[in-house]
Amino acid sequence: MLDNALKYSPPQSPIQFCIVQRENLLGTSFTVTSQLAGTDFLDETIFARGERGAGAEGRGSGLGLYLVKKVAEAHGGGVSFLVHDDAKVTFDLFLPD
Q: Are 9 and 15 a contacting pair, CB within 8 Å?
């Protein structure tokens, strides 16, 4: 998720990475908040195999978020995103303890 934030955020924009223990859910969240290049590409298909976001810089095969989702599910967790406004998004990877 952090690698995707670096690739798909506008140049020089801030990226925040946090690890949070969620006692009420008995697990840990890994969150990445970054700036958006645009919201028109951001829907649930972003987790599909071979999907790449708008404004992709550098190389990639579109497997990053797909693999994050598959690993999360294999461990009984999940991955989601929340668009805060037209400029910021947070991805959350949750893994139960």
A: yes
Structural domain containing residue 85: 2-96
Using 50, 70 and 90 to split pLDDT, how confident is the model at 69? very high
Within 10 A of 79 (CB to CB), how many other CB atoms are there?
20
Residue 54 has pLDDT above 80, yes or no: no
pTM of the model: 0.83
Q: For the domain that residue 27 is a member of, what is the CATH number?
A: 3.30.565.10
Structural domain count of the chain? 1
- Helices (H) and strands (E) counted in the chain, each on its own, are 2, 4
